[in-house]
Design brief:
The protein is α/β, with parallel strands linked by helices and 578 residues long. The strands form four sheets. It has a seven-stranded mixed beta sheet with strand order 9-8-7-10-11-12-15, with helices on both faces. A hairpin with a 2-residue loop joins strand 8 (356-360) and strand 9. The longest helix is centred in the middle third of the chain and has 21 residues, at 292-312. The protein is globular.
Length: 578
């Protein structure tokens, strides 16, 4: 079955073991590679199981005659039935459990559902529902998904990686569970995040499911509630820190590179601030690493800001930015904005940072606080008298853009939003904290308190709002716009490192996808219904920048990168079996 194409590795230089990229949907493929799958074994293998969609001929050839009811369904009919069933659930967590069951039963049908109903199902497999799933992961845990690497595996991490059945991995999403969304330390139960993120890599970015690997690194938890929970599935100890933590991560990063090569993308997810910055600094020069909380959030927010200029006018450099929250997301977004202004105006980044102000739990970050600040906050300490409250900071700084990345809900109060509206004709308000309960304000509050003047986007989804007879559609500043296409771009170019220029390219590509029709509704992001087209365009821009920087190993460079990106995308349609 190894034709020339498979050996050469269509789709980013990684061998296509199952012919998923190379076989067209009407081409016959064999549903096995190392062993012949038939009968119950075939029905229990989520990669090849088609349920009632096995044809009469396939039922005879693969010994499943009689193991299935006699009806033969199309994949479309199966999808219709499942969506009907899912819509019967009132509780989002029940939908989540049903979808995870489907993923473990029939992989292609799961991704078909996700792709065709992305706007409806995204909030289920991702924020906000995935947050609740992580909180209750011990109770709803059924079958292991991904790899668990704990302190018990120290010195044996390479062996543990070899236990994973797939040998060619392109993307790893890894968390240590210390800062899950805005919910805090969930320890080992954070596994819901890498699993959810990777299902989006496939559904939205077209990365093959067989080349995705979710990993949770368990170094303990400081969450007393979990430590006292008899059903907790992780290590029952306080978090390891310092040398012990660093050594485990060092061994993990070396093992990943040793086992999967130079071009495997490692995405850090939901690490606590101090570790997130350190890991990115430490490994960005030796590994292909990306932190979605710092870089992905920054890229998607910058895209929204670039797109919003069509509505509010001026260039990025004409605006003044005020952040509530100076952690990974806040400082990551601020830095990328400063880089983009620097790129546009040719001014040094030290100069462009002065347009951007940050407020943390102690108030406005100003130069008189320099000595006590964490290292990642220091570039944002500008000359100004100390200001304690956000409202006073808004009045003093007079921002045109207010961005919330604090992880604390209800912090954009009526007075804050009113102050923004009195200072600006069209104030741009981004309440980015997840899940919905942690959002700085709701869409309805932003539109009502600003008397319909605000341009609003949030991290978690909000329904359209009617205010004085006009319907406002809030945008969702969701990392899922960026990371699947960004990852695909790195894979198809065979990138060996990530650079900030690639993030800027991704932001510009996403902003370019917003149509006039979207702007007319006040949207600064395109609808998710076209996400695969959007991802292909982002992938092409990222790949082009990778080639330009000389960091691509997949040579020669394809002529049409958008077409090439689309051709590398996994399609979830059923294959016909011999």
């Amino acid at each position: 079955m190894a034709t020339e194409d498979f050996v050469n590795g269509v789709g980013g230089g990684v061998k296509d073991l199952y012919g998923e990229d190379s076989a067209t949907e009407d081409q016959l493929i064999t549903p096995w590679n190392f062993s012949v799958a038939s009968g119950c074994t075939l029905l229990r293998d989520p990669r090849y199981n088609k349920g009632l969609a096995f044809t009469e001929k396939e039922r005879d050839a693969h010994y499943v005659r009689g193991l299935l009811p006699p009806a033969v369904f199309t994949q479309e009919l199966q999808e219709k039935r499942l969506m009907h069933n899912l819509r019967q659930y009132d509780v989002p967590l029940h939908k989540y459990i049903a979808l995870m069951d489907l993923q473990e039963r029939n992989e292609r049908l799961f991704y078909k559902l996700m792709i065709d109903n992305v706007e409806e199902l995204l909030p289920v497999v991702y924020t906000p529902t995935v947050g609740e799933a992580c909180q209750k992961y011990g109770s709803i845990y059924r079958r292991p998904q991904g790899l668990y690497i704990s302190l018990k595996e120290k010195g044996k991490i390479l062996e543990v990686l070899k236990n994973w059945p797939e040998k060619t991995i392109q993307v790893i999403v890894v968390t240590d569970g210390e800062r899950i969304l805005g919910l805090g330390d969930l320890g080992c139960q954070g596994m819901g995040i890498p699993v959810g993120k990777l299902s989006l890599y496939t559904a939205l970015g077209g990365v093959r499911p067989s080349s995705c690997l979710p990993i949770t690194i368990d170094v303990g938890t400081n969450n007393e509630k979990l430590l006292n929970d008899e059903f907790y599935i992780g290590l029952r100890q306080k978090r390891a820190t310092g040398k012990e933590y660093a050594e485990l991560l060092e061994e993990f990063m070396h093992a990943v590179k040793q086992n999967y090569g130079e071009k495997v993308l490692v995405q850090f997810e939901d690490f606590a601030n101090h570790n997130a910055f350190d890991l990115l600094d430490k490994y960005s020069s030796s590994h292909l690493v990306f932190n979605d909380d710092i870089q992905g959030t920054a890229s998607v927010v910058l895209a929204g800001l670039l797109a919003s200029l069509k509505l509010v006018g001026g260039t990025l450099a004409d605006h003044t930015f005020l952040f509530l929250g100076a952690g990974e997301a806040g400082t990551g977004i601020a830095e990328l904005i400063a880089l983009e202004i620097s790129k546009q105006t040719k001014a040094p980044v030290e100069e462009t940072r002065k347009k951007i102000w940050l407020v943390d739990s102690k108030g406005l970050i100003v130069s008189s606080r320099l000595q006590s600040l964490q290292h990642f906050k220091k570039p944002w300490a500008h000359e100004h008298e100390p200001v304690k409250e956000l409202l006073n900071a808004v009045k003093a700084i007079k921002p045109t853009v207010l961005i919330g990345s604090s992880g604390v809900g209800k912090t954009f109060t009526k007075e804050v939003v009113e102050a923004m509206a009195s200072l600006n004709e069209k104030p741009l308000i981004l309440a980015l904290s997840n899940p919905t309960s942690q959002s700085e304000c709701t869409a309805e509050e932003a539109y009502t308190w600003s008397k319909g003047k605000a341009i609003f986007a949030s991290g978690s989804p909000f329904d359209p709002v009617e205010y004085e007879g006009k319907v406002f559609v809030p945008g969702q500043s969701n990392n899922a716009y960026i990371f699947p296409g960004f990852g695909l771009g790195l894979i198809i170019s065979g990138a060996i490192r990530v650079r900030d220029e690639m993030l800027l390219a991704a932001s510009e590509a996403l902003a370019a996808q917003v149509s006039q029709e979207n702007y007319d509704k006040g949207l600064i992001y395109p609808p998710f219904t076209n996400i695969r087209k959007i991802s292909a365009n982002i992938a092409a821009s990222v790949a082009a920048k990778t080639y330009e920087l000389g960091l691509a190993s997949h040579l020669p460079r394809p002529k049409d990168l958008v077409k090439y990106a689309e051709s590398c995308m996994y399609s979830p349609g059923y294959r016909s079996y011999r």
